[in-house]
Structures are given as structure tokens and as C-alpha cells.
Design a protein that fits this description.
It is a single chain. The protein is mainly beta. The chain has one domain. Helix content is 0%, strand content 35%. It contains no helices and five strands. The strands form two sheets. It has a three-stranded antiparallel beta sheet with strand order 2-3-4, with no helix packed on it. The protein has a two-stranded parallel sheet with strand order 1-5. Strand 3 and strand 4 form a beta hairpin. The chain is globular. The relative contact order is 0.34.
């Protein structure tokens, strides 16, 4: 996950594409500062490759990236 914004990310969610709910906050109590990155393994053993991602920032804004194929994509960048 690359936070290529100028605002720290306080929450990050990933769920199988099309799911009705988000999984738990992957960052937990951590914050991903602006301009920083963190490695996350989304292989849940199901073989499912397509995920939706949601980032929530400390200023209250959020961004959603849908239908990301994590089997062929190694980075998810938020701008």
C-alpha cells in the first residue's frame, strides 16, 4: 500500500470485490504517514484475486479502489 497523498492514512480495508461489508481495519491502531508505504499480504488461501480497497485519512476523507487484481498487481497507490 502506498500513501502518495499529503495526508496520513488512519484506516485501510480490503474485501473480496463485491462484498457487502469491509473486513477489519488492516492498519489497526497504526497510521500510514503521507508519502509512506507498507507491505500487506492479501492471500487468504481462497485463491480469490479481486479485491476492493478503502483508505480513510486523518482529515476524514476516504478513497475507494475497486476490482484490484492482487494476483497480478503488487502495489495499490492512493493519490
Amino acid at each position: 500500500i502506498i500513501n502518495n497523498t499529503n495526508v496520513s492514512m488512519r484506516e485501510f480495508y480490503g474485501s473480496n470485490a463485491g462484498a457487502d461489508t469491509w473486513q477489519e481495519d488492516i492498519l489497526g491502531s497504526d497510521v500510514l504517514p503521507a508519502g509512506s508505504s507498507v507491505s500487506v499480504n492479501f492471500d487468504d488461501g481462497s485463491g480469490y484475486c479481486t479485491f476492493d480497497f478503502k483508505a480513510v485519512f486523518v482529515d476524514g476523507t476516504s478513497s475507494i479502489d475497486q476490482n484490484v487484481d492482487v494476483c497480478t498487481t503488487s502495489t495499490v497507490t492512493f493519490h
